[in-house]
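hey so u asked for the seq, here:
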Amino acid sequence: MPFSPPLPLPESLQSMVQHHRDQWQAAVAHADLAGRVSELGEQFLSSLDSVLAGSDFVAEQLRRDPQMAWRLVDDDLLWRTLEKGDMSRMLGAALAAVEDEEQLAQALRRFRQQQQVRIIWRDVTRMAATAETTRDLSDMADSCIELAYQWLYTQACATLGTPSGADGEPQHMVVLGMGKLGAQELNLSSDIDLIFAYPEAGETQGGRRSLSNQEFFIRLGQRLIKALDAITVDGFVFRVDMRLRPYGDSGALVFSFDALEQYYQSQGRDWERYAMIKARVVAGDQAAGAELLAMLKPFVYRRYLDFAAIEALRSLKLMIQREVQRKGLQDNVKLGSGGIREVEFIGQAFQLIHGGRDRSLQQRPILSVLDMLATNSYLPDEAVDELKGAYLFLRDTEHALQALDDRQTQMLPTDAQSQQRIAYVMGFDHWDAFRQALHSQRARIARHFADVIADPDDEHDEELPLHSEWMPVWEGSLDAQQRIEQLREGGFKKPEEALRLLQGLQESGRVRSMQRLGRERLDVFMPRLLGMATEQDDADLALERVMPLVEAVARRSAYLLLLTENPSALRELLVLCSASPWIAEQITRYPVVLDELLNAGRLYRPPETDELVDELRQQLMRIAEDDLEQQMEVLRYFRRAHVLRVAASEIAGTLPLMKVSDYLTWIAEAILQQVLQLAWREMTQRHGFPKRADGSLCEMDFVILGYGKVGGIELGHGSDLDLVFIHDGDADAETDGAKPIEGSRFFTRLGQRIIHMLNTQTTSGALYDVDMRLRPSGESGLLVSSLQSFSRYQREEAWTWEHQALVRARVLAGCKRLSHRFQDLRMEVLSRQRDEAKLREDVGGMRQKMRDNLGTKATRAGSDPSAFTAEALFDLKQDAGGIVDIEFMVQYAVLAWSCRYPELLRYTDNIRILDGLRDAGLISGEDVQRLQEAYKAYRAAAHRLALQKQPGKVSGDQFQDFRRGVISLWQQWLPE
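ran it, C-alpha cells below
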C-alpha cells in the first residue's frame, strides 16, 4: 500500500527536506543511477520526504551509499515485517566472505547502517509499531554479537587453543545482555550493556602454550568489544558498556559462573538486582547461560515479600532526580519526572517485591510486566492502560529524537526546526500541541509512580499519620513513669503491661542481634504500631497479639518494611489480630501471608470455586514440572492465603456460616485436585501407566473420597481431612514404563505420595492433617482399595457406623468415570432395605459409646439436669442435644428411608438432607427448621470459638431451647 503521511509536510521543513533530496539526487547521478530512480517505485518516492524530514541520518546514509536505496527496495526490506531469524540470516550472508578482523568490522558496520536506515524508515512512516522497532533493533544487536562472537571464537581457538573444562569438553563464553538489550527493548541509539562469563576454570588445549580459560576469554572479549564498539570510517556497530559487571571498570572483564554467583550473593547491591531482572543470554553457550541465570535467580527474586525493593528504588530515583536537577535534564523523556525510567521503576518494584513468589512477574519486557500487574490485580486495569499508553508515546518520542542524527539523546530539542521535525514525526501540527500531549502523558506516569514508589512519610494528610509522638516511648528517651503516662493517655488501659511488652521486645535476642538496617526499620515501624494500636477498640489487646509477630519477623525486616510502607495493611493486621488470636497466631507462624493485607478489597472477597481452581492451576503452571519443593510451597501459600481471606470475611461479617464452610471446603478440593495431578504425573513419569483389567492403559482411574466434614461440605478452621482412596486398575498387571511395578504397588505408592504432599511439614507448615481410618478395615486395611474390593466390603462386611459415614462421602478429586461408579455404589448400599429396629439399636449404641468416651463427664454427656446450669459446660459437638446427635439422626433417616425415597441420597450435607426429609413428608417442617437452626447455631459458635483458639464448649445455660428440642426429637426417633 502506498505510504500516505498523516500530515502534509510543514512549510517550515520543506527547504530542509528539499536540500536533503537534492543531495541524494546528486549522489544518485554521480553513481550513474539517475535513470533507474523510477525502479524504486511510487511507495518509496512518496514516503521519502517524510523520512528525510525525520532523519538526517537516513539522508546521510542514502547520500553516502546511493545503491542502498535499491538494495532495500529490491529485497523488499522497507515494506514488510521481518520474520524470526531473518536478521541473523542476512548478517550471516554478509559475513560469509570475511577473512580477517578488519573485514569483519567493515561488514558489521555496513550491515548495521543499512538495517538502521530500514528500521528508522519504517518507524518514522509508522509502518512499524513501537514493539516492532525495538524488537528489530534488539534482533540486530543479538545477531551482530552472536555472529561476531562465533567468528572471533573460531579464530581465537585456531591461534590460542580451545578452552576446556574439567571434563575436557570445549567451553564457550556466555554473553549476557542487560537493560534494554536483555528485555529486547533497544532504542535507535542505545548502548548495549554486556556481561561476559564462562562456566568453569580450566586451560586451553591445542595452542602453542596453554592459557587459563579466563585469560582466553578476556582476550576474546576484548576482540569482541573492538569489533562492535570501535569507530572506523564506516562508523560503529554498537557502543558497548561493560560497567554492569562485578566491580565495574575495576573488575575483571570475564568471570567464571562460581565467581559471579559468589559476588552477587555476598556483595551484590540493590541496583544490580534491578539490572539482573532483564539479563538475557544474547550470545555464546545458550544452555550454559540458562544454568547461569538459574544460579543467579535467588539473588534477583527473593522468596519472601521484599518491600526493601521499594526503599532502594526510591533512593535510586532520588539520586537520579538530583542528577536531573544538577544537569538541567528536566526535559529528558527518560530520566525526567514522568519519564520512561519511572514506568520501568513501577514494573521493577512489583517484580522485586512479589516476583519471588509470583513467577508470572519474572519477565523482561516492561509491557508484559505491566499486563501481568493488571491480570493479577496488583494495579487497576485503568492504571495499566494509562501507563502503557504513556510509555509507548514516550518511546516513540525517544525514537523520533534519536532518528534525527543517530545520536544517543532523550533531551527535547531547543531549536525551532528540530522541534517542528519532532512534532511532525509524532503526528502533531506544531510543537505546542505535541508538548501539551507529552506533558499530559508524563503527568500520568508521575502520578502512578508516586502512588507506587512514594514514601508514606511524604504524606501529611490525616489518613496516614506519622505517629512520631510515640518515638520517645519506643526509644526510651523518657523515663519509665513518663512512658507509662503517655501510654495511658493514648488509650492503653494496662500501660505497665504495654511497656513490659515493649521492653521485652527490645531486650529479646532477635532484636539485639539485628543488623543496623533492620534495627532502623524496626525503629521506624514501632511508633506507627503504637499509634495505630490506639485507634483500635482495645489497644492493649491489639498490641499484645501483634507483638509476637513483630519479634518473629525481626530478623526478616522486609516484613516490617511492608507494614511501614502500607499503613492500610498495618491497620488491617491490627483489626484482624484484635478480633482473633487464631488469625494472629497464623500470621505469626506464616508471615508470608501478610501480602494478603495489601488489598482490602480482595481480602474480604474470597473467590468462587471455579476461580479458586483456576488460580491455583495457573500458579502451578508457572513452575517447572520437576520443582516439587516450589510446587509444595505454592500449595501451602495458596491455602494459608485463602483461609486467611475466609477468616477475615467471617470476622467482618461479610461471609455467613454456610459460606465459610463452603469456601474452606472448596479450598481443600482445589488443593486435592492439584496434589493428585502432581502425584499422578510423578508416578507415571517414573513407572509408566497402570493398566485396566481389559489391558488398556489407565487414565488416572483413581478418586479421592471425602468423608466427615469435608464430605459434608462443613469444614471448619483447623479441620483435618477424612479421606479414602479408590482405584479401578488391574492390581496384578505391571505398568508400562521403564521401571514397571504391579498395579497394586503403583496405586499404594500414589496414595502414599498424596499423603506425603499433604502431611509433610515444611517451613510453611503442612497442608492438611489427613485421617485415613475410615477406609475399609480401618488402620489394618489397605491404604488404597480397588473399586471391586471397596464394593465387596461395603456390601458384605461394613458395620452400620461405616454406612453412616458413607452418607457424607463424596468424590473430591479424580476420574469422572470412576466417580460415577462410586456414586452408583453409594446409592446401592445406602438404599438397601434395613431392619429399622436393628438400625436404631446400632445407631443408638454407637452414639452412646461416643457420649461415654467423648462427652462431658461431669454432666453425663449433657444428660444430667445440671448440664443446663451456668456452672456446667456444654460440649457443642459431643453432648446430648448437640451437633453429633443431629448428624446421627440425619444418618439414621437416610439409612432407614432412602430405600423408599432415593432423593435423600442426592446430597451429603446435613442441611440439604434435612430439606429432603421435609420435602418427602418424613419430618415436619417445624422439626426440620428446629434441627437446622440448632445445627447452624452450634456450628457458628464452634467457628467463633476456633477463631478465638477456644475449645468447642460453652456454658451450660446457653442454647437450652435448641438442646431440649434436639433431645426431644432424638428420644422420638431413637428411644433408648
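The two ends are 93 Å apart (CA to CA). The chain is about 60% helix and 5% strand.
lmk if thats what u needed
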